[in-house]
Amino acid sequence: MLNGGKLEMQFDFFDIPGSIMHFAINDPSAFILGRLKEHHSYTYFHSLRVAHYSLELAKMMGLYRLEQQVLVRSALLHDVGKLFVAREILDKKERLNEEELRILRLHPQFGFEIVQEMVNPGLVDLDVLLYHHENLDGTGYPFGLTGKFLSLPVRIVRLADSFDAMTTVRAYNQPKSLEQAMNELVRWSGEHFDLEVVKIFEQYIYYRSM
């Protein structure tokens, strides 16, 4: 809803559509997601929301239905590497020390290895799992890749992941408002986030907020 030119959150961004829940429960990847839910429930529900935002972006950007399905599955699985990160690290309220940060930043590679072994080729975009923390300007991790190496699905999940992280309660920070989160996405457009994906997501937020 618009109030004085500002966006208000009239709907609950934390709601997860039934279609995403159904997919997560009935998909071949459900076993892995179940393990993730047991290990760290925040990451599980975060992954559902990331899948939802990714799907909405995919629809608005004209991806084919099969591409949408692969993207949703990949978004659901993007953080499964955190199965190998201790809950004490995932829930730590203080700043992570150097070793803890090193372990956390290995989760894309852990997830890549898990899914590569357990999910049939073609059902998931492994680049999404491996590169969802990479930035266009090469400042991301684990490899410091630049934009020319990052596909559209990777760019979509990169944004969806960050938006949800900014707008939900986490152990170590309070959520940003919808307006604050959008300002961050715009601020880092062209450096961390794809400008076109940000513009499309702005449209999605605007129409959902009316």
From TrEMBL:
This is Uncharacterized protein. PANTHER family: CYCLIC DI-GMP PHOSPHODIESTERASE PA4108, CYCLIC DI-GMP PHOSPHODIESTERASE PA4108-RELATED. SUPFAM superfamilies: HD-domain/PDEase-like. It comes from Effusibacillus lacus. InterPro entries: HD/PDEase_dom, HD_domain, HD_GYP_dom, HDIG_dom. It comes from the Bacteria. PROSITE patterns: HD, HD_GYP. Residues 21-210 form the HD-GYP domain. Residues 43-166 form the HD domain.
